[in-house]
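We both want to read discrete structure tokens more fluently, so let's practise on a single case. Would you supply a protein for us yourself, any chain you care to pick? Would you write everything just below, so we can both look at the same thing?
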Amino acid sequence: MDTSTYAEETELTKYIWTHYQHLFSRPEQLAAKAVFAEVKANDSSSLAMAKALREKWGAENDAGVIAALSEGADAFRVCVRERLMRECPERIHINRCPACGRILRTPRARQCLWCSHSWHQSDR
């Protein structure tokens, strides 16, 4: 990875969203599905498929989803990340490189994609 593009807050949000969705509240799960459906619908070359995705997963008529996404998907992602870090930090393990301190790709990673440091053969 290009080390000049590392942004701690962005990487932390991606990490939480990738590995800790099981900690999301039910309304957050519904809103996350709506965000995913919208991304897929926008990427679809079929108007019928885009419509089907939005109808099935979009939750356009759910007031909670609409409220959660009122500031946009990126703001929603950050808000969920902040809530999880505030309310259940003991359940979240942020795996960091012992050499550069940056967030790793997964909670069990043993190689940094930022600085290339590897510790596969050690206990850390």
The radius of gyration is 17 Å. The chain has a mean pLDDT of 89. The chain has five helices and no strands.
